[in-house]
Design a protein that fits this description.
Ribosomal Protein S8, Chain: A, domain 1; about 30% helix
């Protein structure tokens, strides 16, 4: 047992910047490149955060580094979904949870508006048809001023 005490052990200090751990820093660089593509070429990017092998604390460091902006939305369809813009406009988080509250998807979109918030063309067509019918027969639609 005394032989074990004579083995030198080197303990490395953690990185001096909290976000310089595991995959957080490379991901932030990827986000920066995606934001540049969005600005210069109007090309949105989606990053599946569930697919990234985060090390301990990486996800929390990423969320803290990017912060939370002023815009958020909550959707209820086959579970709850939350959408929020980071403190850096154009960088959005989208989290989907099933009916049991378990996270089933977590992604980031670098875009002007997340796809989940945009109205689908089929829904616009249905909306137009419904509105035209309501205008022809006002008792079918919502009353103006209500």
């Amino acid at each position: 047992m005394n032989a074990l005490k004579s083995i030198p052990v080197l303990v490395e200090a953690p990185a001096t910047r909290d976000f310089c751990y595991q995959n957080t820093l490379p991901l932030l660089h990827e986000i920066s490149h995606a934001l540049r593509r969005l600005q210069q070429e109007q090309l949105p990017t989606t990053i599946d955060l569930n697919a990234i092998p985060f090390g301990p604390g990486d996800e929390q460091r990423l969320l803290e580094f990017l912060g939370r902006g002023e815009v958020s939305a909550h959707l209820e369809a086959l579970g709850n979904s939350s959408v929020w813009e980071s403190g850096y406009p154009g960088i959005w988080f989208i989290e989907h949870r099933n009916e049991s509250g378990e996270r089933v998807a977590f992604q980031m979109e670098i875009t002007t508006l997340p796809a989940i918030l945009a109205t689908h063309p089929d829904d616009i067509a249905e909306s137009l048809s419904s509105l035209q019918k309501a205008l022809e027969n006002p008792s079918l639609g919502h009353r103006i001023g209500d």
